Amino acid sequence: MKKNRFGRIAGTVLGAILILLLVGPFLVPVPPLENTVPAETLVDEDSKFIEVNGINVHYKTYGQGEPVFILMHGFGASLFTWHEVTIPLAEYGTIIAYDRPAFGLTERPMEWDGENPYSQDAQIELVVSLMNALDIEQAILVGNSAGGTLAMLTALKYPERVQSLILADPAVYSGGGAPAWIRPLLGTPQMRHVGPLFARMFQTRGSEMVELAWHDPSKITTEIVDGYQKPLQIEDWDKVLWELTIASSESDLAERLNEFNMPVLIITGDDDRIVPTEESIRLASDLPNAELVIIEESGHLPHEEQPEEFMKAVQEFLSR
Q1: What angle do CA 287, 147, 205 make, to 5 degrees?
Q2: 200/194 Cα distance (integer angstroms)
Q3: For the whole prediction, is pTM greater than 0.90?
Q4: What is the pLDDT of residues 158-208, one digit of tens each?
Q5: CATH 3.40.50.1820 given to domain 68-319
Q6: Distance (Å, rounded) from C-alpha 220 to C-alpha 291?
């Protein structure tokens, strides 16, 4: 009798927990975002758009001639992150900075047929398709953080299209998104309901993340804060950021570094607290043909915090 009673109690408790897990998230209110606007209302005078793989991609161009540099920003950023170095870089060729899907002013589809546009593979294809659309045969890929990861993956899949890589604090050994064991849960109806609430933490804690990326936060101007906050005014940015989170996956770059034959420049700040400086030092030693430059008094964004030192490293790399 006691065993049967215990079994019934345990079954009731487990059933209640299961119901709570299945139904509970739907009981959490997710109010609509306030004060959002369509992306087209936020364009700059030099903004350009082009249809690539069914997505309206926002980009800007500077300079002319060859080589062509394609600038690829990291997570939570946009092409704005390159604002200190686009004009200096344009002295060496054509500069194309674009907003990756889920960021900036690039279209953020909520529905799609076929490949998820926020997946790793789709973003690789977008880089090459953008080059095709702009009649670019080869380019130097310049990537920061997760943009550096994407640049490296693109170079592995399409080595004939990449002349060389310039990587600022690339995320290779860590920073691949959510752990593999939890990813199947992120796409459940329950998590899709409450996921945007987690994404909105990026807005409330965005200033903390920017400060974490800088060695000296006192250098962060109002212009910089506004530049990072601007894309967070766009309709449904929270839902799309959650879709990107669901689609995130770890790369296998660490196991494939011996496949890189092209010249690679790795630039890191000496005080990177997002992708630790030690990881960039390790990457430079693991790659067959890499140069390393460590910029003093700089964090995760040396191209913003120390643009002159960043350009000095790039100039010396290009001259060789």
Answers
A1: 125
A2: 10
A3: no
A4: 999 999 999 999 999 976 566 666 667 777 877 777 778 888 887 777 678
A5: yes
A6: 29
